[in-house]
Design a protein that fits this description.
By secondary structure, the chain is α+β, with helices and mostly antiparallel strands. Helices cover about 25% and strands about 25% of the residues. It folds into two domains: about 300 residues, DD-peptidase/beta-lactamase superfamily (Beta-lactamase, 3-Layer(aba) Sandwich), CATH 3.40.710.10; about 100 residues, Lipocalin, CATH 2.40.128. The protein has 13 helices and 21 strands. β10 and β11 form a beta hairpin.
Length: about 525
């Protein structure tokens, strides 16, 4: 689940929009003539192996192209049918599925969730009773940012219903509908609502009712459907020094409705075109000419949850400062240089992407990448938008490069701080064996701690990739480095003595700014069994 990162990292949020300026009279409007070269410059500047871009204008795909490599080691190029993980761009697909079912009378957007899932429970009775279908798509449940993500991240043994059942034990951090907090778990609930209302599995409904009519012939529900011979982009992650390394495929089989889909730029051009045309399907469309009505799209694009606007990270990005910002149903809504903008981004380890619609311009831009540079997709999107607005007064590559440099310096400083044990050094208060044991959190499950020489080993019982070594940090706190170094997930575990020479419980927290917000360790309350 990631979103546009231009100004701040929330997991990844940033905003885009701008104050309106007069159009430069001497600048022609239309598709940038330098777009292929510009994309190559973006790849070079932001160290991205491969990018695919589509531009849709007034119902026509005017640009659709792959650039660079989908696999660096094998020197395989990106083409228009290369599959990328679109991650949280999937949320717009799930929201569309819900809206289609509402249009067909299978549900109403303001139905209680318990009307469709009678067993559904939140930790607060009021939230359980009043949670409506619309709330599932709008990030206003009262849960904290990314709460519950450890139930499916990086992968777990839980099925989708079990993930949702665990909501009953996940504490709310604010009042229901009080604030925006980006989350994935409520889209797992939406996935089950799709299944209950349609009588089909989520995968079958999306394949037959969305992929097929739109013409998304390359698209897959999640990474588990990939085959060795597929034309798919390998994901790459830079280390602290900027060197790229491949990242294993991540598949959220138990929450595909939040971030599962893989699709090509050819698929996404058709998807964005359908959204831009208010549900009218691209040709050829057979007997079904519309995916949904214009009224349904208006409901889907209506802001539900306002989001505070933050200052730009660097002065050069001030032209992208929004006037308004919020979340609708599976889409962010804001504005750019005074033009209404509807958009979403997505990110998994080693890949980020974005889909952006400018309805008043009849324009859509889709950017898929196989590296974690949010600056890359923002620079391309804004460059294209500016060209259609007749603007050439902002160097987006330079602006986002300055932002990336500032963020890199902040991360380097954070690394330096978190790589050194705080002084004066305080050894563990107890023998290591006293920390070992079986710990259980009400909403996640079991975390096991064992001894390994002068260190501890920590393993999450339902997450096979979350196994690592915990080294003494300060007193009863230990720093965990996971064995799988492709995870942005290092953490601290803080043990709480019971006052009788043992340990009663433990809490966890992210170890540095590089630990992705999706790892919601801070929500764990681990009680020794």
């Amino acid at each position: 689940m990631l979103v546009r990162f231009a100004f701040s990292t929330l997991g990844l949020f940033a905003v885009m929009s701008a104050s309106a300026h007069a159009r430069a009279a001497d600048v022609p409007t239309g598709l940038p003539t330098d777009l292929p070269a510009y994309i190559d410059q973006v790849r070079t500047t932001f160290n991205v192996p491969g990018i695919a871009v589509a531009v849709i204008k007034d119902g026509k795909v005017v640009f659709e192209q792959g650039s660079g490599l989908r696999n660096v080691a094998l020197h395989l190029p990106v083409d228009v049918h290369t599959k990328f993980c679109i991650a949280s761009n999937t949320k717009s697909v799930t929201a569309t599925a819900i809206e289609i079912l509402a249009e067909r009378g299978k549900l109403h957007m303001d139905d209680r969730v318990t009307d469709h899932l009678p067993w559904f429970r939140m930790a607060e009775p009021y939230a359980t009773r009043e949670m409506r279908v619309r709330d599932l798509l709008a990030h206003r449940s009262g849960l904290g940012s990314h709460a519950g993500d450890l139930l499916f991240l990086p992968s777990t043994r839980y099925n989708t219903r079990e993930v949702v059942e665990h909501l009953a034990y996940l504490p709310l951090s604010t009042g229901f509908r009080e604030n925006f907090a980006y989350e994935n778990i409520m889209f797992a609930v939406a996935t089950l609502v799709v299944e209950q209302a349609s009588g089909q599995s989520y995968a079958d409904f999306v394949r037959t009712q969305i992929f097929a009519p739109v013409g998304m012939g390359d698209a897959l529900i999640d990474g588990s459907e990939l085959r060795p011979t597929d034309d798919v982009a390998t994901s790459y992650m830079p280390d602290a020094g900027g060197r790229l390394g491949p990242v294993p495929t991540l598949a959220w089989e138990n929450n595909a409705g939040a971030a599962g889909i893989y699709a090509s730029i050819h698929d996404m051009a058709r998807w964005a075109g359908t959204q831009l045309s208010q549900g009218a399907l691209p040709p050829p469309n057979g007997a079904q000419s519309r995916l949904f009505s214009a009224a349904t799209q208006a409901d889907m694009f209506a802001m539900v949850t306002p989001i505070p606007i933050e200052a730009p990270s660097v002065p050069a990005l001030a032209p992208a400062q929004p006037n308004s910002f919020g979340y609708a149903a599976g889409w962010f809504v804001s504005d750019f240089r005074g033009e209404h903008m509807v958009w979403h981004t997505g990110g998994f380890p080693g890949t980020v992407s974005e889909t952006t619609l400018f309805p008043s311009l009849g324009l859509a831009v889709v950017v898929l990448t196989n590296q974690e540079s949010e600056e890359a997709f923002n620079a391309i999107t804004f460059h294209v938008a500016d060209s259609y607005l007749g603007r050439s007064d902002t160097d987006w590559i330079a602006g986002f490069a300055a932002s990336a440099k500032k963020r890199a310096k902040r991360l380097e400083a954070d690394d330096a701080k978190n790589e050194r044990r705080p002084e004066p050094l305080v050894p563990p208060a107890l023998p290591l064996a006293r920390y070992a044991g079986r710990y259980k959190d009400a909403w996640y499950g079991v975390v096991n701690v064992t001894t390994d020489g002068n260190k501890l080993r920590v393993s999450f019982s339902d997450s096979s990739r979350l196994m690592g070594t915990a080294e003494p940090w300060r007193g009863d706190s230990f720093r965990i480095r996971w064995d799988d170094r492709t995870l942005h997930a290092d953490a601290f575990i803080d043990f709480v003595p019971d006052g009788h020479g043992g340990i009663s419980r433990a809490t966890m927290r992210r170890a540095s700014a590089r630990t992705a917000p999706a790892y919601d360790f801070q929500d764990l309350d681990l009680h020794r069994q």
